[in-house]
Amino acid sequence: MKSTAKSELYRKLPSVNEATYSSAVTSLAAGYGRESAVDAVRVVLARLRQEITSGLLGEGALDLALSGLADAVEKQLRQSLSYSLRPVINATGVILHTNLGRAPLGDAALEHIRETAASYSNLEFDLESGERGKRDVHVDRLFRKLLSSDLVEAESPASAAALRAGGTAEAAVSTPATIATQAQVSTPAVSTIVVNNNAAAVLLALNSLADGGEVIVSRGELVEIGGSFRIPDVMVKSGAILREVGTTNRTRVADYEQAITDRTRLLLRVHRSNFEITGFTEQASTAELVALARRRGIPLMEDLGSGALFDLRSIGISGEPGVLDGLRSGVGIVTYSGDKLLGGPQAGLISGGSELIRRMRSNSLFRALRVDKLIYAALEATLLAYVQHDHDAIPTLRMMRLAKDAIGERAEALAARVATPKLRVEGIDGESILGGGAAPSSILPTRLLALTCEGLSADELAARLRASDPPIIARVEDGRVLLDLRTVFPEQDEALESALATIGRDA
Known about the structure:
45% of the residues lie in helices and 17% in strands. By secondary structure, the chain is an alpha/beta fold. It folds into 3 domains: 3-80, no CATH class; 137-310 and 319-393, Aspartate Aminotransferase, domain 2; 399-506, Aspartate Aminotransferase, domain 1, CATH 3.90.1150. It has a 7-stranded mixed sheet, sandwiched between helices. A hairpin with a 3-residue loop joins strand 5 and strand 6. Helix 4 packs across helix 6, helix 8 packs across helix 9 and helix 11 crosses helix 12. It is globular.
């Protein structure tokens, strides 16, 4: 196209003012707002100019585009004023997919959020006394049921009897304890506080217990997880001084003991998220570190990262420590996430000895890192499901417990409905994973749908799925698109089927 011809095309474009005051766009402005309509007109006209410049629009094509200018402006308005944060269908088989928001919430949690957000609440108000209360109480009472009572049953028959007789968990502990002793002895006096994520939990605990002092940690546990969260960096921000011991692959309890000085404030164990060390390795056991901490009167803290309240061994996954495992063994403080294996909202949870927790609660950082009423509502509903042993009410636990055969039956039924001569669908054996840094080498057997489409590469097919409404996120492996229905809610099957049928028809 000659430049003179292009200049003629440019002259055909209306001004922003002319387009805005056309009758069709004026009616759009009444519904969407004039400023938004003007912005949409500018974007559409700029796009047409760019297409003329690049030679994509000739005279006939431009005339057609201008006849549909109002439709293009309306489409741009809907796109610019729609939500950016959208629900998607997770067909990857990664249950705790960090990029997709980790744990989805159960119905009870969603309803409790709705009723709490739509009204005033007793977030920090004691209904009995009529005085100001503490927001911690809404979930701490449930954590005490889940953690303290189990500890009593496991560790102290006498204390368990006291509880059954109507006493409290704290009253069942008859011997006074110093801060260090409370941190290390497995007692039912366990408290829990909530901050906005596990990184904040680690920061608050380190700052409260070791500001200006040394924290001893194995070199093999100086981890970095997603978002460039590095243990050494968090320790610097907390005011604690890192004291590395051992080597990358081997650290013995003697390494910790030899590093203890009068400046030592804390022993720290960090769960290795997203990786494992195998081969010529050695790691001090939790029991050894607990014994050392008791002997030297220094608190022991364990950063679990994921932090399960559910026994993963029941679904065939071993080696992933749970919150109760650490507390039962005598660890003083355990930090973990709310939106990973717990299956609740994003939160950082700190459970441990009541006196140590009191020190964190009184730290001014706690107010800066605390969570709001919506997180407490979702967390309270999730914990109630645990208390009632209703694990299927928590979506992540329900997904973990799904049997391979049940997933396979559902996948085969879907394949039969969507397969076409162009869209080939094959059922194959595969693996789901927990995700979220939990049990990185553990897998859950599953059945996958392997898709290929005539005329489309695997990457192009995956892009078509992402462009669906709602977007469908899948895996691409060995030139095929793989769908794992373990992480697809049954009520999403219809949307998945519709998207696949459209692709099979239009490809």
